Write the structure tokens for this entry.
Amino acid sequence: MKNLRYIALFTITLLLTGFSTLLPAQNYPFELSRLPYAYTALEPVIDAQTMEIHYSKHHATYVKNLNLAVKGTEYEKYTLEELLLYAGETGDAVRNSAGGHYNHSLYWNTLSLNNPFDALSDVGKAVIATFGSADSLKKLLTKAGATRFGSGWAWLYVTTDKKLAVCSSPNQDNPIMDVSPERGIPILAIDVWEHAYYLKYQNKRGDYLSAIVNTINWAAVNKNYTDALANPLLKDIEKDTWTGLNEFHEVMSQTFHPSQDGDLNPIRERSGELLARAKDLQSGKIPASFNTAEIKNSIASLVKEAGVLNQLVIKKADDKTITKKLGELHEIFHSIK
Ligand SMILES: [Fe+2]
């Protein structure tokens, strides 16, 4: 009996460890995530040859190219999630390779012939509450994959307000990326690149999609769901979608940084614009996680001090006074940011 308990504990530990190591949360140098099953494991839905080429050639190449793209750059310090979050600034090589690595890791993680939809699991309840039924969700995923022109992905993801949603993305993009119109953390990935299905299904993407939506590892998706809800990345994405803050940041950055190098022209020309952006930030929508009395007080201070700075500029105050006030404003901004 005691031995049985140990075996059960070992199996549970192995399963949990297995799931957690599949989703890559590493830094440079990145490594190819372990494939959690044999190349034959998903037959007849996905044939062994497709699996082998897909994993050992396509996915492996994304990891290799990611390391080459990141090597020797400031991005060596970024986690994979951060590389995705800032995809708009990292350049196409990092964007495509980081996406390719993350997306394929999630894809392997969310496929199985033996883990059917469980209506009583956390994600099962959320799917039914959001989409009505598992079949309705499968139809949405199939449609998202079928209507994605060219290469890309279909996703079930957790939005910044912790709801479930379906979308698709082109190339190797995903909803974590700042370049994506839909934002959140993906918990189920469906690869709709031809390399995922062409050997068996040729041009019939619809047949592949009909089969793959019934080959989902719902135990893994359930874990991805609860992990996503607790992941601080969700709050980072939420902050990233705060338009008012981003627009204020843009003017702040373009005026404060030159002032640090002794160039006061940008702030003397744009102090009125900075005040206007502060007022927009105050009157605009604040994301739920940031809608606190403390943040609102900081934004009120930002508006007040931006007004004082603007008056100093209008009255042609000296450089030292302007620099000091702009520095104070920058401090208040960073207490919010
Ligand atoms: Fe792929």
Notes: The mean pLDDT is 91.
